Amino acid sequence: MVLKLDKVSRGPHLPALVASSISREIAQGRLKPGDKLPTEQELSQTFGVSRNVVREAISRLRSEGRVWSQQGRGAFVSEASDSTVLTIDSASLQQADAFRGLFELRGILEAQAAALAAARRTGQDLELMRQTLATMCEAPYGSVTWLKTDLEFHRVIAAATRNSYMVQFLVFISERIRESILAAGHRLRSDDMAQTTLAEHQRILDAIAAGDDGEARRAMQSHIEAATRRVGLPVEPAPGGRTSPPPPLPEEQDR
Protein backbone atom coordinates (compact mmCIF):
# COMPACT_ATOMS: atom_id res chain seq x y z
CA MET A 1 0.00 0.00 0.00
CA VAL A 2 1.54 3.32 -1.09
CA LEU A 3 0.06 6.36 0.62
CA LYS A 4 0.54 9.91 -0.63
CA LEU A 5 1.05 11.63 2.69
CA ASP A 6 3.16 14.78 3.02
CA LYS A 7 4.16 17.03 5.85
CA VAL A 8 1.44 19.55 6.69
CA SER A 9 1.91 23.30 6.96
CA ARG A 10 2.29 24.65 10.45
CA GLY A 11 -0.72 26.43 11.90
CA PRO A 12 -3.55 26.27 14.41
CA HIS A 13 -5.48 23.58 12.53
CA LEU A 14 -2.92 20.79 12.39
CA PRO A 15 -5.28 18.01 13.58
CA ALA A 16 -7.85 19.02 10.93
CA LEU A 17 -5.18 19.07 8.23
CA VAL A 18 -3.88 15.64 9.23
CA ALA A 19 -7.44 14.26 9.36
CA SER A 20 -8.20 15.75 5.92
CA SER A 21 -5.09 14.19 4.42
CA ILE A 22 -6.00 10.74 5.76
CA SER A 23 -9.60 11.23 4.57
CA ARG A 24 -8.34 11.87 1.05
CA GLU A 25 -6.40 8.61 1.15
CA ILE A 26 -9.62 6.83 2.10
CA ALA A 27 -11.72 8.64 -0.52
CA GLN A 28 -9.21 7.87 -3.28
CA GLY A 29 -9.01 4.20 -2.36
CA ARG A 30 -5.42 4.03 -1.19
CA LEU A 31 -6.78 3.23 2.27
CA LYS A 32 -9.60 0.70 1.92
CA PRO A 33 -12.28 -0.43 4.38
CA GLY A 34 -10.67 -2.67 6.98
CA ASP A 35 -7.13 -1.39 6.34
CA LYS A 36 -5.05 -0.58 9.40
CA LEU A 37 -3.73 2.98 9.59
CA PRO A 38 0.00 3.53 10.14
CA THR A 39 0.96 3.79 13.81
CA GLU A 40 0.87 7.10 15.68
CA GLN A 41 4.65 7.21 15.57
CA GLU A 42 4.72 6.61 11.82
CA LEU A 43 2.04 9.23 11.15
CA SER A 44 3.84 11.67 13.45
CA GLN A 45 7.05 11.29 11.46
CA THR A 46 5.28 11.38 8.09
CA PHE A 47 3.36 14.59 8.78
CA GLY A 48 6.07 16.22 10.89
CA VAL A 49 3.74 16.77 13.84
CA SER A 50 3.54 15.60 17.45
CA ARG A 51 1.81 12.40 18.46
CA ASN A 52 -0.78 14.49 20.31
CA VAL A 53 -1.76 16.10 17.00
CA VAL A 54 -2.06 12.65 15.42
CA ARG A 55 -4.23 11.42 18.30
CA GLU A 56 -6.56 14.40 17.91
CA ALA A 57 -6.77 13.82 14.16
CA ILE A 58 -7.61 10.14 14.67
CA SER A 59 -10.20 11.11 17.28
CA ARG A 60 -11.79 13.47 14.75
CA LEU A 61 -11.87 10.75 12.09
CA ARG A 62 -13.37 8.35 14.62
CA SER A 63 -16.12 10.84 15.56
CA GLU A 64 -16.93 11.24 11.84
CA GLY A 65 -17.17 7.48 11.43
CA ARG A 66 -14.19 7.32 9.09
CA VAL A 67 -12.15 5.02 11.32
CA TRP A 68 -12.57 2.82 14.37
CA SER A 69 -10.00 1.92 17.01
CA GLN A 70 -9.25 -1.15 19.09
CA GLN A 71 -7.14 -0.99 22.20
CA GLY A 72 -3.69 -2.43 21.56
CA ARG A 73 -4.28 -2.95 17.82
CA GLY A 74 -4.59 0.57 16.41
CA ALA A 75 -7.00 2.38 14.09
CA PHE A 76 -8.77 0.86 11.08
CA VAL A 77 -10.75 2.28 8.16
CA SER A 78 -14.48 1.86 8.73
CA GLU A 79 -16.34 -0.48 6.43
CA ALA A 80 -19.02 2.07 5.49
CA SER A 81 -16.83 5.17 5.38
CA ASP A 82 -17.32 5.80 1.66
CA SER A 83 -21.11 6.02 1.66
CA THR A 84 -22.45 7.09 5.04
CA VAL A 85 -20.09 9.71 6.45
CA LEU A 86 -20.64 13.43 5.97
CA THR A 87 -17.29 15.22 5.80
CA ILE A 88 -16.01 18.54 4.52
CA ASP A 89 -12.36 18.69 3.58
CA SER A 90 -10.82 21.65 5.44
CA ALA A 91 -8.48 22.30 2.52
CA SER A 92 -11.42 22.73 0.13
CA LEU A 93 -12.80 25.58 2.26
CA GLN A 94 -9.78 27.67 1.28
CA GLN A 95 -11.53 28.07 -2.08
CA ALA A 96 -14.01 30.96 -2.20
CA ASP A 97 -16.66 29.03 -4.14
CA ALA A 98 -16.65 26.13 -1.67
CA PHE A 99 -16.74 28.43 1.32
CA ARG A 100 -19.56 30.51 -0.16
CA GLY A 101 -21.46 27.29 -0.88
CA LEU A 102 -21.17 26.27 2.75
CA PHE A 103 -22.51 29.66 3.87
CA GLU A 104 -25.36 29.31 1.36
CA LEU A 105 -26.26 25.92 2.84
CA ARG A 106 -26.05 27.40 6.30
CA GLY A 107 -28.49 30.15 5.29
CA ILE A 108 -31.03 27.65 3.98
CA LEU A 109 -30.91 25.54 7.13
CA GLU A 110 -30.79 28.45 9.57
CA ALA A 111 -33.76 30.21 7.97
CA GLN A 112 -35.87 27.06 8.16
CA ALA A 113 -34.69 26.44 11.73
CA ALA A 114 -35.80 29.92 12.79
CA ALA A 115 -39.23 29.42 11.20
CA LEU A 116 -39.70 26.04 12.89
CA ALA A 117 -38.45 27.42 16.20
CA ALA A 118 -41.07 30.18 16.02
CA ALA A 119 -43.77 27.52 15.73
CA ARG A 120 -42.39 24.99 18.23
CA ARG A 121 -40.38 26.88 20.86
CA THR A 122 -41.16 26.56 24.53
CA GLY A 123 -40.80 29.10 27.31
CA GLN A 124 -37.57 27.40 28.33
CA ASP A 125 -36.20 27.74 24.81
CA LEU A 126 -36.93 31.46 24.81
CA GLU A 127 -35.28 31.89 28.19
CA LEU A 128 -32.13 30.15 26.94
CA MET A 129 -32.08 32.40 23.87
CA ARG A 130 -32.45 35.52 26.04
CA GLN A 131 -29.69 34.38 28.40
CA THR A 132 -27.36 33.65 25.50
CA LEU A 133 -28.04 37.01 23.88
CA ALA A 134 -27.45 38.75 27.22
CA THR A 135 -24.05 37.06 27.45
CA MET A 136 -23.24 38.23 23.93
CA CYS A 137 -24.07 41.79 24.96
CA GLU A 138 -21.49 41.60 27.75
CA ALA A 139 -18.70 39.96 25.72
CA PRO A 140 -16.25 42.02 23.63
CA TYR A 141 -17.28 41.92 19.98
CA GLY A 142 -15.09 39.59 17.97
CA SER A 143 -13.74 37.76 21.01
CA VAL A 144 -13.69 33.99 21.46
CA THR A 145 -16.42 34.36 24.11
CA TRP A 146 -18.55 36.33 21.66
CA LEU A 147 -18.16 33.69 18.96
CA LYS A 148 -18.86 30.81 21.34
CA THR A 149 -22.03 32.52 22.58
CA ASP A 150 -23.09 33.48 19.05
CA LEU A 151 -22.87 29.86 17.91
CA GLU A 152 -24.69 28.75 21.06
CA PHE A 153 -27.55 31.15 20.25
CA HIS A 154 -27.96 29.47 16.88
CA ARG A 155 -27.68 26.01 18.45
CA VAL A 156 -30.49 26.83 20.90
CA ILE A 157 -32.68 27.94 17.99
CA ALA A 158 -31.92 24.68 16.18
CA ALA A 159 -32.78 22.71 19.33
CA ALA A 160 -36.11 24.55 19.55
CA THR A 161 -37.12 22.99 16.22
CA ARG A 162 -37.33 19.60 18.00
CA ASN A 163 -35.48 18.17 15.02
CA SER A 164 -32.27 16.47 16.12
CA TYR A 165 -30.94 16.32 12.56
CA MET A 166 -31.24 20.10 12.29
CA VAL A 167 -29.04 20.45 15.37
CA GLN A 168 -26.46 17.97 14.09
CA PHE A 169 -26.13 19.56 10.67
CA LEU A 170 -25.97 23.14 11.94
CA VAL A 171 -23.39 22.30 14.61
CA PHE A 172 -21.37 20.44 11.97
CA ILE A 173 -21.38 23.48 9.66
CA SER A 174 -20.71 25.96 12.47
CA GLU A 175 -17.61 24.07 13.56
CA ARG A 176 -16.20 24.41 10.04
CA ILE A 177 -16.76 28.14 9.67
CA ARG A 178 -16.04 29.30 13.22
CA GLU A 179 -12.43 30.34 12.51
CA SER A 180 -13.51 32.55 9.61
CA ILE A 181 -16.23 34.14 11.73
CA LEU A 182 -13.71 34.77 14.50
CA ALA A 183 -11.24 36.32 12.05
CA ALA A 184 -13.99 38.58 10.67
CA GLY A 185 -14.89 39.65 14.19
CA HIS A 186 -11.30 40.68 14.89
CA ARG A 187 -11.04 42.53 11.58
CA LEU A 188 -14.33 44.42 11.95
CA ARG A 189 -14.27 44.99 15.70
CA SER A 190 -16.11 48.20 16.57
CA ASP A 191 -18.97 49.36 18.78
CA ASP A 192 -21.16 50.06 15.72
CA MET A 193 -20.59 46.56 14.33
CA ALA A 194 -21.31 45.02 17.74
CA GLN A 195 -24.62 46.89 17.98
CA THR A 196 -25.54 46.00 14.40
CA THR A 197 -24.91 42.29 14.99
CA LEU A 198 -26.76 42.31 18.30
CA ALA A 199 -29.71 44.02 16.59
CA GLU A 200 -29.79 41.22 14.01
CA HIS A 201 -29.96 38.60 16.76
CA GLN A 202 -32.58 40.56 18.70
CA ARG A 203 -34.78 40.74 15.59
CA ILE A 204 -34.58 36.95 15.26
CA LEU A 205 -35.39 36.44 18.94
CA ASP A 206 -38.34 38.85 18.83
CA ALA A 207 -39.84 37.04 15.84
CA ILE A 208 -39.45 33.62 17.46
CA ALA A 209 -40.92 34.92 20.72
CA ALA A 210 -43.91 36.32 18.78
CA GLY A 211 -44.41 32.99 17.04
CA ASP A 212 -44.09 34.71 13.66
CA ASP A 213 -42.48 32.06 11.48
CA GLY A 214 -42.38 34.26 8.37
CA GLU A 215 -40.62 37.12 10.13
CA ALA A 216 -38.28 34.68 11.90
CA ARG A 217 -37.27 33.26 8.52
CA ARG A 218 -36.69 36.73 7.05
CA ALA A 219 -34.74 37.93 10.09
CA MET A 220 -32.48 34.90 10.04
CA GLN A 221 -31.91 35.10 6.28
CA SER A 222 -30.99 38.77 6.60
CA HIS A 223 -28.59 37.95 9.45
CA ILE A 224 -26.85 35.16 7.52
CA GLU A 225 -26.49 37.38 4.45
CA ALA A 226 -24.91 40.08 6.62
CA ALA A 227 -22.63 37.48 8.22
CA THR A 228 -21.64 36.31 4.73
CA ARG A 229 -20.56 39.84 3.85
CA ARG A 230 -18.66 40.16 7.12
CA VAL A 231 -16.43 37.21 6.27
CA GLY A 232 -15.69 38.83 2.91
CA LEU A 233 -17.94 36.80 0.61
CA PRO A 234 -20.29 38.29 -1.99
CA VAL A 235 -23.96 37.48 -1.48
CA GLU A 236 -25.58 35.77 -4.46
CA PRO A 237 -28.95 37.26 -5.48
CA ALA A 238 -31.95 35.40 -4.13
CA PRO A 239 -34.65 34.15 -6.53
CA GLY A 240 -36.09 37.24 -8.16
CA GLY A 241 -32.71 38.95 -8.36
CA ARG A 242 -32.77 40.49 -4.89
CA THR A 243 -31.17 39.79 -1.56
CA SER A 244 -32.79 40.51 1.77
CA PRO A 245 -31.99 44.04 2.97
CA PRO A 246 -29.64 44.15 5.94
CA PRO A 247 -31.14 45.33 9.23
CA PRO A 248 -30.70 49.07 9.88
CA LEU A 249 -27.79 50.33 11.91
CA PRO A 250 -28.69 51.15 15.52
CA GLU A 251 -28.61 54.90 14.89
CA GLU A 252 -31.00 54.44 11.93
CA GLN A 253 -33.63 52.61 13.94
CA ASP A 254 -34.81 55.79 15.67
CA ARG A 255 -35.24 57.78 12.45
Concise structural overview:
Keywords: DNA-binding, Transcription, Transcription regulation. The protein has 255 residues and is mainly alpha-helical.
Reconstruct the topology from this structure.
Layout: H1 14-27, H2 40-47, H3 51-63, E1 67-70, E2 74-77, H4 81-84, H5 96-120, H6 123-138, H7 144-159, H8 164-187, H9 191-209, H10 213-230
Helix pairs in contact: 1-3, 2-3, 5-7, 5-8, 5-9, 5-10, 6-7, 6-9, 7-8, 9-10
Keywords: DNA-binding, Transcription, Transcription regulation
Protein name: DNA-binding FadR family transcriptional regulator
Region (Disordered): 226-255
Rg, nearest Å:
21 Å
What count of helical segments does DSSP give? 10
Give the count of structural domains. 2
Characterize the main sheet. Answer: 2 strands, antiparallel
The CATH architecture classification of the largest domain is Up-down Bundle
Silhouette: elongated
- Beta-strand proportion: under 5%
Task: Spell out the helices and strands N to C.
Answer: HHHEEHHHHHHH
Let me know the number of strands: 2
- CATH-derived topology of the largest domain: Four Helix Bundle (Hemerythrin (Met), subunit A)
CATH classification, class level of the largest domain: Mainly Alpha
Explained architecture:
Residues 226-255 are annotated as: Disordered. Residues 244-255 have a biased composition (Pro residues). Residues 12-80 form the HTH gntR-type domain. GO terms for molecular function: DNA binding. With 255 residues, this protein is mainly alpha-helical. It has 2 domains: 14-84, Winged helix-like DNA-binding domain superfamily/Winged helix DNA-binding domain (Arc Repressor Mutant, subunit A), CATH 1.10.10.10; 95-237 and 244-252, Four Helix Bundle (Hemerythrin (Met), subunit A) (Up-down Bundle), CATH 1.20.120.530. The chain has 10 helices and 2 strands; from the N terminus they run H-H-H-E-E-H-H-H-H-H-H-H. A hairpin with a 3-residue loop joins strand 1 and strand 2. Helix 1 (14-27) crosses helix 3 and helix 6 packs antiparallel against helix 9 (191-209). The longest helix has 25 residues, at 96-120. The radius of gyration is 21 Å and the shape is elongated. Residues 240-255 have low confidence and may be disordered.
